[in-house]
Design brief:
This protein has about 325 residues and is of the alpha/beta class. It has a single domain (about 20-310), classed as Ureohydrolase domain (Arginase, Chain A), CATH 3.40.800.10. The protein is about 35% helix and about 15% strand. It has ten helices and eight strands. It has helices at about 55-65, 80, 100-115, 130-135, 165-170, 195-200, 210-215, 215-230, 260-270, 290-315; strands at about 35-40, 85-90, 120-125, 140-145, 175-185, 205-210, 230-240, 275-280. It has an eight-stranded parallel beta sheet, with helices on both faces. It is globular, with a radius of gyration of 18 Å. Pfam families: Arginase (PF00491). Keywords: Hydrolase, Manganese, Metal-binding. Belongs to the arginase family. Agmatinase subfamily. Its cofactor is Mn(2+). It comes from Yoonia maricola.
């Protein structure tokens, strides 16, 4: 028998075998071999409610072993369109300091971007989107934000960098263009309307869950495409956009959310945009039931990967 490196999983092997990587792609040996780099951000130091999203990347990796190659709805095989690699996890050295941890996330993402690797992060709490945007956005970019919460509140317990504030900070820092930002699936009670008010006043298009359910995911996706146009766009997906029936394992669950099928339709309607990166966040395995949230996270990460890989291939032929 010849030794086979575990850094190169066999996608055709039984799905319960081999080391779990994101989507069973090879572990990156060099930056040069990757077009799209999937990586974990096991960080939840900026949470305001239930903890546990630090364990999200590991469990999404595990459940992503169930993903296979070809998307039945779009017929996209992302692994044929781009060199996709698991880049490992962001190595933290100061996890008890939020802003220091954010700098380490930003540095990791910068390393990928300088090597022309498109970043696709699996978190982690939603505060991680801010340092990722700091690395990616050299000028204001568009944002598609799918979530139960607007994440545009000002501060919590004296911190302006909690997981409920990243997109307010992103506007203030000139990282995103709020008039080219759409927030989809927003719902749930709040103690103040501060976040919703900021989103509206800054020019963001806010789609509350009632409108989403009334119009349907395909129509909302079409509106998002029209709003973003050909601008560079970042896609951020919070698993709590799903109803807790489909995603109980998250920090701030809100009833009245999307079904997993609605989420698939929404994402499949967001093809052919000028993506510059993406993240999927807020999977909290300690609160999960039967791994359904981690599985949903893995399956929706696969849908996002299809979007990124398709865009990468089109750029390669331009």
């Amino acid at each position: 028998m010849e030794f086979k490196s575990p850094a190169k999983p066999n996608q055709l092997a039984p799905r319960f075998t081999e080391i779990a990587t994101f989507m069973r792609v090879p572990i990156a040996q060099t930056l040069e071999e990757a077009d799209i780099g999937m990586f974990g951000i096991p960080y939840d130091g900026a949470l305001t409610n239930r903890p546990g999203t630090r364990h999200g990347p590991r469990e999404v990796r595990n459940q992503s072993s169930l993903m296979r190659a070809v998307n039945h709805a779009t017929r996209i095989n992302p692994f044929e369109l781009a060199q996709i690699r698991d880049m490992g996890d962001v190595p933290f050295t100061r996890m008890f300091e939020v802003e220091a941890s954010h700098k380490e996330i930003e540095a990791f993402a910068n390393m990928l971007i300088e090597a022309e690797v498109m970043p696709f992060a699996i978190g982690g709490d939603h505060s991680i989107s801010l340092p990722l945007l700091r690395a990616i956005a050299k000028e204001p970019i568009a944002l598609i934000h799918i979530d139960a919460h607007a994440d545009t509140t000002d501060s919590f317990q004296g911190s302006k960098f909690n997981h409920g504030a990243p997109f307010r900070r992103a506007v203030e820092e000139g990282l995103i263009d709020p008039t080219k930002t759409i927030q989809i699936g927003i719902r749930g009670t709040q103690n103040t309307s501060d976040g919703w008010d900021f989103s509206a006043a800054s020019g963001m298009r806010v789609v509350f869950c009632e409108e989403f359910h009334e119009k349907g995911p395909a129509a909302i996706a079409a509106e998002a495409r029209a709003l973003v146009g050909d601008m560079p766009v970042y896609l951020t997906y919070d698993i709590d956009s799903l109803d807790p029936v489909y995603a109980p394992g998250t920090g701030t669950p809100e009833i009245g959310g999307m079904t997993t099928h609605q989420a698939q339709i929404l994402l499949r309607g967001l093809r052919d945009l000028n993506y510059v990166g993406a993240d999927l966040v807020e999977v909290s395995p300690p609160f999960d039931v039967g791994d359904v949230t981690s599985l949903a996270g893995a399956a929706l990460a696969y849908e996002i990967l299809c979007l990124l890989a398709e865009v990468h291939q089109k750029r390669a032929f331009e």
